[in-house]
Design a protein that fits this description.
- About 55% of the residues lie in helices and about 15% in strands.
- By secondary structure, it is an alpha+beta fold.
- Strand 1 (about 35-40) and strand 2 form a beta hairpin.
- The chain starts with a helix and ends in a 6-residue tail after the last helix.
Amino acid sequence: MRLTLAGIILIFAGFLLLFASTFTSVQPSNTTVGGVILIGPVPIIFGKGYSGDLIPLMIIGIIFTIIALVFFFGSILLLRRPRDGT
């Protein structure tokens, strides 16, 4: 229970730090922003800026999707395996 609460607090602290960092920029810069959200095995890739910088995000999304599918189908195969009831 304590680790779950600590994880939730860390996630919210990360969101707050990212939100606060948007206001600290004094000069307009030429940066690229992007991210990957996994909903089940489907990656949602978003970003703004030079499209060449978003290609690594797409690769990461594909890799995470493959890992999620391997775990999903692996768990199905593990649960369908006949068990010896002796």
